[in-house]
Specification:
By secondary structure, this protein is of the alpha+beta class. Helices cover 53% and strands 11% of the residues. The chain has 23 helices and eleven strands.
């Protein structure tokens, strides 16, 4: 960050040096106006900065490098005033006069992003990086451009480089966390986004992104807490999408009244937000307010006539209201739109079962499982009807290890399961294009009995060197859930696992720590040691032992923001998106 600030302040330093070296009266006036503009820009007085730069540029015979710097800084002021096209004009002039200034390419790339041209933005960020290979902000911004284009793997690599270059900035951790989420690495996302909010506790965008990651792994309380924090940090910016996110978290946690409050507010803010009507309809169904549910789901269909979920959920509401024929009509309409939708197939199975058309119900449940082999409701329904439940699709990727096998039900999605824990599914997070492989299975004892550690090969960072990755899924085999997925090693570099009485602090090879709560706090009993050389606590108190490194946060759906909530704001906020 410091080197970037020097580049942005370079004009001031140049002007001071020239003035002290002696200049003509006209040059002195030009330099004075330019210094006034730079000072106003630093204070956020953008109109005043532009006026001063205009006067400076009106002077005859300005040296090219000074004129280029003035155009660059005036472009920044215009961009801050959302005069984006005019800002690009200034950046263009600056580049014509001084084509080797990496900062100007970075700034123009940001402006092009604002105009909806991320592909052109990538080209400018490429040029900035070519001119200045350690330009962390340019890597961060190129990551945002790739993400906008849906290119999440290149985005992840750019954010990873930005984190390396700017390890104390929250912004690239936020971007990398969001990229992890888009690549369905939600636990990795939580690590990075936790690091972002640790570095900047007022970073609203990072709380928003972490809430989305928590929701994806069914950590509903954590998701609602983060959404609340994001809303609190930006009270003057009502956010219907964030209210919808929090409502989903509340509903997942069976807190239906606050969920309805948020959905009501979201609909008030965005009356045509179909997803809000769908979610409110689902909550009404869960609270047996079927007429209200049907009304909301009908409104969602009016807004989005091809919304399969709206038809399927209205069918579910009508089924529970004992309007079976209407329910069948709705779900058939859903399947006209998407014939293989597993939700719609499962709901039609429910309708057929209610109509005692069991053969058709069984066929639909099997069809739903063919699309989503891990759909619990259809499996339960087949068992209820006395049918054999089909095996989860996909061939095992290797021989079982301690009973664990990995299957690939769809391309790029890997599930580890063990017949000993029939209700537990571990969705493995992968990097690169490799296939996972179980390395070891360990179960903890005594105070942490019921916690298992599933170590697996997780791919690589794709750098053509030894970056073979191993991760560990921490599972609660009593609650049938994954608590976290944490790094074990990145190539030759090992993570540090520091066991505490009811938690573990995992510090990745980059030095970012994340604490995973394993049990509710209570007085710890002595515990055994030697889990891959990572020791559980030897003492009965709550202090950590067996390594170095401490607690704290570790280090995400909408475009990851670099500015909101202070993440990329401040004096040099134009560097970041």
């Amino acid at each position: 960050m410091q080197s970037t600030r020097i580049k942005l302040s370079g004009l001031i330093l140049v002007l001071i040096a020239l003035a002290s070296a002696g200049a003509s009266a006209d040059e002195d006036k030009t330099l004075l106006r330019a210094r006034e503009g730079a000072a106003a820009l630093m204070r956020g007085q953008y109109d005043k900065a532009i006026a001063a730069y205009d006067e400076a540029l009106a002077a005859p015979e300005i040296a090219d490098f000074i004129e280029a710097s003035i155009y660059s800084d005036r472009g920044i002021a215009k961009w801050r005033l959302k005069q984006t096209k005019e800002a690009i004009d200034d950046f263009n002039k600056s580049i014509q006069l001084a084509p080797d200034n990496a900062t100007v390419y970075n700034n123009r790339g940001n402006a092009l992003m604002d105009l909806g041209h991320p592909d052109e933005g990538v080209k400018d960020f490429d040029r900035a990086i070519a001119l200045s290979p350690n330009y962390g902000a340019a890597y961060n911004n190129r990551g945002n451009a790739h993400a906008t284009l849906g290119q999440y793997e290149p985005a992840f690599q750019d954010f990873r480089k930005a984190v390396e270059l700017m390890p104390t900035s929250a912004v690239p951790f936020n971007g990398r966390g969001k990229a992890h989420s888009e690549l369905k690495r939600y636990h990795a996302a939580v690590r990075d986004l936790t690091r972002a909010v640790t570095l900047n506790p007022k970073y609203a965008a990072a709380y928003d992104n972490r809430a989305q990651a928590y929701l994806a792994i069914a950590m509903y309380k954590e998701a609602s807490d983060d959404a609340t924090q994001a809303l609190t940090l930006e009270p003057d910016e009502p956010n219907a999408d964030l209210l919808l996110l929090r409502a989903r978290a509340y509903a997942g946690d069976k807190k239906f009244n606050p969920a309805l409050d948020d959905l009501n507010k979201a609909i008030e803010l965005k009356p045509d937000l179909a997803d809000a009507y769908i979610e409110r309809g689902i909550v009404f169904t869960q609270t047996r307010r079927f007429d209200d549910a049907i009304g909301d789901l009908t409104r969602a269909i009016e807004i989005d006539p091809k919304n399969v979920k709206a038809y399927a959920m209205r069918a579910s509401a009508r089924l529970q209201a004992e309007a079976n024929d209407d329910a069948l009509g709705d779900v058939n309409e859903a399947l006209q739109i998407a014939s293989n939708d597993p939700l719609a197939l499962r709901v039609r199975g429910n309708v057929y079962e209610a109509l005692t058309r069991n053969d058709e119900a069984i066929a639909d449940y099997n069809a739903a499982l063919a699309q989503d082999p891990f759909q619990t409701e259809s499996r339960d329904a087949l068992q209820r009807l006395g049918q054999e439940v089909p095996p989860e699709e996909g061939q095992p990727l290797g021989p079982p290890l301690s009973g664990w096998v990995i299957k690939e039900p769809e391309s790029g999605r890997y599930i580890a399961s063990n017949p000993k824990y029939a209700s537990l599914r571990v969705e493995l997070e992968m990097f690169g294009s490799g296939k996972p492989r179980i390395v070891e299975w360990k179960q903890l004892k005594d105070a942490l009995s019921g916690i298992g550690l599933l170590q697996y090969y997780a791919g690589d960072f794709g750098e053509g060197q030894d970056t073979s990755l191993e991760y560990v899924a921490i599972v609660d085999i009593r609650a049938n859930k994954v608590l976290s997925i944490e790094p074990h090693s990145w190539g030759p570099a090992a993570a540090q696992w520091n066991w505490q009485a009811v938690s573990v602090v995992v510090t990745d090879p980059d030095g970012n720590a994340n604490e995973v709560q394993l049990r509710k706090a209570r007085k710890a009993a002595p515990a055994p040691t030697d889990f891959w050389g990572f020791e559980q606590p030897r003492t009965t108190d709550n202090s950590a032992s067996g390594g170095t490194g401490g607690g704290g946060g570790g280090g995400g759906g909408r475009r990851a923001r670099g500015g909101g909530g202070g993440g990329g704001g401040g004096m040099f906020g134009w560097l970041f998106r």
